[in-house]
Amino acid sequence: MIGSWDKSSWRTKKRHQMPEYKDPEELNKVENSLKSLPPLVFAGEVRNLKKDLAKVESGQAFLLQGGDCAESFEEFSADLIRDTFKVLLKMAVVLTFGGKKPVIKIGRMAGQFAKPRSSDFEIINGQKLPSYRGDIINDIEPTIEHRLPKPERMLKAYTQSSSTLNLLRAFSQGGFADISRVHSWVLESTKGQVGYKKFFDLATKITNSLEFMSAAGVNSENSDSLRKVDFYTSHEALLLEYEEALCRLDSTSGLPVAGSGHMIWIGDRTRQIDGAHVEFCKGVQNPIGLKCGPSTDPDELIQLCKILNPENESGRLTLITRFGSDLISDHLPKIIKSVKNAKLRIVWSCDPMHGNTIKSSNGYKTRPFEKILAEVKTFFKIHMSEGTFPGGVHVEMTGKDVTECTGGIKSIDDEDLHSRYHTACDPRLNASQSLELAFLIAEELEAFVQNS
Ligand code: PEP
Ligand code: CO
Question: How far apart, in whole angstroms, are the C-alpha atoms of residue 153 and residue 134?
């Protein structure tokens, strides 16, 4: 199938953005411990996600992927997981109503710990330090000692991911995600809120639809699909020692599966054709995401797609484009045209976060809500004119009331950023901005469905 691939073959390729551990024995010990632990996800679930993503590829479903830029050991609690999950569910209900299609829900959760950085070093308070690379690798505390990569952090990340997943499974299957309950949260978030009138009106239409279905005899008591949700996990497969150690053979097919999360993706900085990350990801059966920023060359992208999805399987490959609102029109049409020429089956998703990061007037890394929205709108417009399906969105968000991105109905401005700026890495949409974005994307989706 994949020639000489095995779960370690990435080690013969060039590593990018990965730490050099100083103590090989310690590393080896940790890898062996991880190898003896159960995988976090199972092959059957991974296959189900691929089937769900195949529906997105063929325009019958929409993808919502979201969560933290970086999960952290310190910011870890049941409440935080619950709140992020709640916001994702609220967004999904709104999008389902707008697009009249099922929404496939994937968290950047339960494994999103490793971060690529634009520079190996950063200057903090005049001191040059190795960059923070995510809690699975080193500690954010700005001292040389804390910034050393430590293998045992992988075990902590595994344990935290496992608890997170346990809770997510309970929430999705145990009645918490009941649609009428989720919808009551949507109503609560919009009712009487300044600027939310049009969203509250839309939410009222959802109420009417649910009441109609209930009158017709379909309700969450007799329909599992209204009471439970499928919720999947994903993260950037950056730290390949961790990924390799959790890679398992699917007992049904005998093929390798990344056991660290349902979907894994390759970052914009690690998608080198002959690099270690492409090598690892090409051999596992999971749905794969590929981030595409402005440096993406359309011809090289086609080669990459063929390496990652040699059988052109629907649902296997999601291209997550992240050009920025100013550059998307220069790049996305070219990429879509190449993919169409090559007749590749692709899920198209828009990450409107990573190309829209700026420095605020007072020095915070932030993202303006209007730029985020502008990129999504252009994404829909370009897909409309190319005749392709704008399959989904990929956002960095949290259920908390942080002040990290500017704008939105509550108009956070540069002066507000300091008040609740908590992110360990990139600025996230807060709960209210996330829901607002979902309402606005629902309008785009509705118009797309009506006009295509
Ligand atoms: C991310 O998704 O957090 C990220 C680093 O994205 P990208 O690889 O697109 O820069
Ligand atoms: Co990020």
Answer: 10
